[in-house]
Write a structure and sequence with these properties.
By secondary structure, the chain is α/β, with parallel strands linked by helices. 44% of the residues lie in helices and 12% in strands. It has twelve helices and eight strands.
Length: 288
């Protein structure tokens, strides 16, 4: 059976989950959880995503991510892949950590962003692990509620702006969600959470993408091309574009390599090939 379409487009909002292989735990201790959050934060900054909420359970996680560019697949592949490598190395294991592909539900931002934020941080409460959301240290609740330091990659202030900056209103909103019906009653086709108008927009995106034979639909990308990076570096150093990757121009050479990876968002293998070095030690899943 063919895998379902993974729709990517600029400005998409996704509820993302991934479970442990055979439903086994994906975090064996707090160090695993810290490692995952560190990798998540790096990927959010690398991909220029917005993360509105997260929650790490024992054998799965929940994320609410907005993608200003159509780059969900690359970022998620790298997040799960690098975490798998780290987990297996630390615990002297081999094989899969996650069960198949992650699940991505496209969310109607206008009508369901806050509902999904609330659902995510209430997971430990619904699972009867803790009595209230603030008792669980591995979700975005505390940072959003102003009860802990907010990581720079968490878009907590954007969530608070929907409560006019009143964190007490956010806390009350989350608490009131414990007794509410599941938001998944409104799920459509297993991949969309939204109202009729939103579903119509999603169908138009799918139709346009299918007509062009692609699975992505996006505006002009925010990420610069390799050519733009090389031209910019060349201009900064007063050399031609063809000279930028000449190792005689050491600073320009290494700056271009760095920018291709960190600003251009190229996989390590692509950068290595372009600058003419070996990538034998590359661990980026995009290079597999």
């Amino acid at each position: 059976m063919a895998r379902p379409l993974r729709l990517e487009f600029a400005g998409a909002l996704y509820h993302l989950t991934s479970r442990g292989d055979h439903r086994e735990d994906i975090y064996l201790d707090d160090q695993d959880r810290r490692t995952f959050l560190d990798l998540l934060g790096k990927e959010i900054l690398q991909q220029r995503w917005l993360c509105y909420a997260y929650c790490l359970m024992d054998n799965h996680y929940h994320l609410l991510i907005e993608t200003p560019e159509a780059n969900l697949v690359r970022g998620m592949r790298r997040l799960n892949g690098v975490y798998t490598q780290s987990f297996n190395r630390r615990h002297a294991r081999v094989g899969h950590v996650f069960q198949g592909r992650y699940k991505a539900i496209i969310v109607d931002k206008e009508n369901y962003l806050l509902e999904v934020c609330r659902y995510i941080v209430l997971n430990p409460v619904r699972a009867k692990i803790v009595a209230t959301a603030e008792k669980w240290p591995w979700s975005s609740y505390r940072a959003s509620a102003g009860e802990s330091v907010c990581p720079k990659w968490l878009a907590a202030e954007k969530v608070m702006s929907l409560f006019s900056g009143r964190r007490s209103s956010y806390r009350r909103f989350v608490f009131e969600g414990i007794a509410r019906e599941s938001i998944w009653e409104h799920l459509n086709g297993q991949i969309y959470l939204g109202e009729e108008e939103f579903l119509g927009r999603m169908q138009n995106i799918v139709d346009r993408s299918a007509a062009r034979g692609i699975t992505k639909a996006q505006k002009k990308p925010l990420t610069p091309s390799v050519g733009e990076i090389i031209n910019t570096v060349g201009s900064a150093y007063g050399i031609s574009a063809s000279e930028v990757l000449d190792r005689n121009h050491v600073e320009a050479y290494w700056l271009a390599a760095y920018l291709m990876r960190r600003v251009g968002n190229l996989p390590l293998g692509d950068v290595a090939r372009r600058v003419g070095v070996s990538c034998a030690d590359c661990t980026d899943p995009d290079d597999n």
